[in-house]
Amino acid sequence: MEHSMYRILIETTVRQTLKGLRENPKRSIRNLVDLALHFSEGRFQSRFFQTAQTMLQHEDSAYYTLVEDAVSHIETEHLVTFGMNLGYNSFTWGAQRIRINESRLGFNIPWTVLLQMEDCQSPDRLAQYDRVIQEGEQLGIYCWMLLSQRDPRELFPLIGCHPDSAFFLFCRSDAVNAASLDGMLPLKHLMPVVRWDEGAGAACTLLRNAQLPYAVCCPYGQDELPAILSGDLFCDTQQLHPLFTVLAAKPDCPTDLRRQAHEAAVLVRKGQAYQTIPWELSYDTRNLDEIISEDACCVLFDGQGQLLALDHPDRAPFGNLFEDGLTPLIRKAYPKSAPLLSRA
Hints:
Elements: H1 5-21, H2 25-39, H3 43-55, H4 62-73, H5 76-105, E1 113-117, H6 123-139, E2 143-148, H7 156-160, E3 166-171, H8 178-184, E4 190-195, H9 200-209, E5 215-220, H10 225-230, H11 232-237, E6 244-249, H12 255-271, E7 277-280, H13 281-293, E8 299-301, E9 307-309, H14 321-324, H15 326-333
């Protein structure tokens, strides 16, 4: 992606603001949001920064502390690169491209794609994922959520080939170690998302000491719902200093519980009492897509390449990513102005 003058201007402003944050964080954050709102051109940007402006009127907001902590403990280049890839390449330039392509091609395009990564030791499989990401970037998709149960180092070459995208890498806590940190450090457009388990504390400490941004992911079902509704979960996760606390429904979690977890996440975000931002993976991802381009879609490809519509879990999988390609499958699953089709 060529660096436009607009992106350069924004990046310069962000860098100047990061310096000011150390002296007067509240004023600097407000000034940045006010400036961003002034230059916002699209519906998504305006809505996002209006919400942020309203929230920052709360003088005791824990998000001020969250930002101060992030600026103090995350390496500046990592913070700038990841933030620009997500905030500009994905939410601004990419969002505009998505809307244009949706109108031109006649189907809905997600702002992000979730990929369950398996068998990535194979060069052929990595090459297939590389083509998928290239294809997605042509559509305007510049954010990717990679879900891995294996050694994350297998994915670093793939991530490194796409420096314009932002990558969230969901991984086991025991996968964060000295060896994987060496591979993460050069990838300024990567944010690891650590599974919330007994090893999460040690993993987050390693990431924090390495000055990397990170989040935690909490799989949930009936047993975990009370802690989500009470806020106890976020009280616990904030002790590890993650930027985001991601709520990911377990496969057997019913729709009603997912809805309750999402409503709780929204209330916690509005309350601003915890130094971490809750994000319900399916609902919040879908809702953000709806803001970007009106017709929402939330796409996951499983390890075999089957497209699963997370916003319609009752539907059968669609085709195969490695045989059919990204664009034909999304076209089939999410045609414009038509109900979601069942698998042929």
